[in-house]
Each structure stands twice: as C-alpha cells, then as structure tokens.
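Task card 7
Instruction: Convert sequence to structure tokens.
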Amino acid sequence: MIHRSARQTLGRLYWGFRNQVCRRTWSFFAWESRSKPPQLTQGRTILAGKGDEAIGERMAVLRGASVDQYRAWLTAGHWVLYAVGPDNDIQSWIWFTVAKGGPQIAPFDFGIGMNVPPGIGFLWDAFTVPAYRRRGLYKTLLMQSVEECFVHGARRVWGHAQVTNKSRTVILTTDHAGETRIQATRIGPFCRISRPGFHRTISVRGVLEMDALLPIHRDEGGATSFMTELLS
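Output:
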C-alpha cells in the first residue's frame, strides 16, 4: 500500500509538472469561401446557442467537463454544432465563435483566450464520444461548422489543431486556404508564443489578439490575403 501510494503521488507530481512546463506547435487553417459540406449518412446535426444551456450540460457530462463552463459558453454567445444518431444520443460536437459588431473572446489553449475580430469565425474545440469515433463525424461537423460561420456573417473562418493531432490530417483534406504554424512554450503561469515576425509572452489567463497572431496582409484597397509564410 505504501509503495502504491508513493507511485500515485509521484504520478500526480509528474503530470502536474508536465502540464506546467511543455511545448506545443499549433497548425492554424483558414477557409475563405463557402462550399457544400458533407452530410451525415445516419442521424442529423443540430446547432445550439444561447438558450440551449441544457444541451451544454449533457455534453459536459459526456466529456467529464465542467457543466458550469459549458453553460457559460452558450450564455456568452458561442455556438456548438452537434451530431445525434437515430436514437437521439449525442455523438460528437464542435464549438465555434462568430464575432458580430465587435470582437469576442473565445477559449483557446492553456487557459488563454483568443480575441476574435468582427467578421471572423473561429473553431476552437471538438470532441467525439469514444463509442462513435472513426465514423467520419469530425470532418462532417468541421465543414458544416465552417459553413455555419459564413451563414452567421463571417468573411473568413479560422481553425486549429496541434500538429501531432489526427484532426490536423482531417483538416488537410478540406478545401482550406492555407496553413501556418505557431510555436508555444509554457513555463508555469506564462506562455511564450511565436512565429516568424511575432513573439509574445503572456499569462495563461491572458488574451491573444487574433489580428496580431495570424499572418494576414492588407493591401491599399483594404483587401486581405495570406502572407507568404503560409505552408502549402
């Protein structure tokens, strides 16, 4: 019992330290035009927003996440598109934000917020219940969420994934406009975020300005396009 307790304590210390000191590389992707998204072969997709907090509670329970947090996201005006099967069980979902009228802060990573400027859509979290994985649900919801962003007034949509995550492989199969990578190093309560031409050290409770983070070029007429650092 003593040895088991010691191993458990060391394990907790290890994972606590690893979460405090770590490096990540994110791939950011953008979509700049609408396309016809795929449809589910079984079941249906449903869009939930403010007033649908009960749905958020169900998702939080399925994921083992904070019920209060999921409710708060919906109350704050974020959206979640989710898939249900013929039995109406929730199978998968993806969260997104479309800033209207003014910037809106969306959850990002490490506890950092992302300040999404007006007219931009941002996809920021996805989950599939284990029993329903490997059925193509993520790609279907991904592309339908991109379309929903455009429907709700976005002119451009951003999404991201860690470079080692399988979701990046799925995103690469979509009609995205380009990919750029962002490096992040967390040491305790601070995070160093960088790419060529951009370096910031912020608190893990801080907020990133999307306009500064992502490489968008504006010409004299106000038109926007990707900078050449984007990966092909």
